[in-house]
């Protein structure tokens, strides 16, 4: 799943609980973080990792592949909520993904 697909999933009013269950994530986790391989690209797949596993590190290795923290899941959900309530509600999922990725790279 890439960022645009993740955005589409939640714009279709899917629940966090359903997503966590489908992706074998711990509902009791303090924070789930969204990771991506570098170089960052809209086409890259994202990984979802509990902070208890990553210990909050920016870089995390899975099977000798390095993934880098983009944003925490709750901040992502806030982004989705804001995008649906603002003048951005007419943007495509791909456009929203670009805005989010740019934010993660440059501002987060």
Estimated radius of gyration: 13 Å
Low-pLDDT residue intervals, each spanning 5 or more residues = none
When the domains are counted, the total is 1
Q: What do the pLDDT scores average to?
A: 93
Helix content: 40-55%
- Between the first and last Cα atoms, what is the distance in angstroms? 21 Å
Label the overall shape: globular
Protein name: Phage protein
Kindly summarize this structure in a few lines.
With 108 residues, this protein is an alpha+beta fold. 44% of the residues lie in helices and 20% in strands. A 4-stranded antiparallel beta sheet has the order 2-1-4-3.
Draw up the topology in text.
Elements: H1 3-11, H2 16-22, E1 32-36, E2 46-50, H3 51-54, E3 59-62, E4 65-72, H4 73-85, H5 93-106
Antiparallel strand pairs: 1-2, 1-4, 3-4
């Amino acid at each position: 799943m890439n960022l645009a697909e993740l955005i589409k999933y939640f714009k279709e009013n899917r629940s966090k609980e359903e997503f966590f269950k489908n992706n074998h994530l711990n509902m009791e986790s303090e924070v789930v973080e969204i990771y991506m391989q570098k170089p960052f690209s809209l086409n890259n797949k994202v990984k979802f990792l509990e902070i208890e596993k990553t210990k909050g590190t920016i870089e995390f290795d899975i099977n000798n592949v390095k993934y880098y923290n983009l944003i925490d899941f709750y901040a992502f959900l806030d982004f989705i909520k804001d995008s649906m309530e603002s003048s951005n509600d007419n943007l495509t999922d791909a456009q929203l993904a670009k805005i989010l990725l740019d934010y993660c790279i440059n501002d987060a």
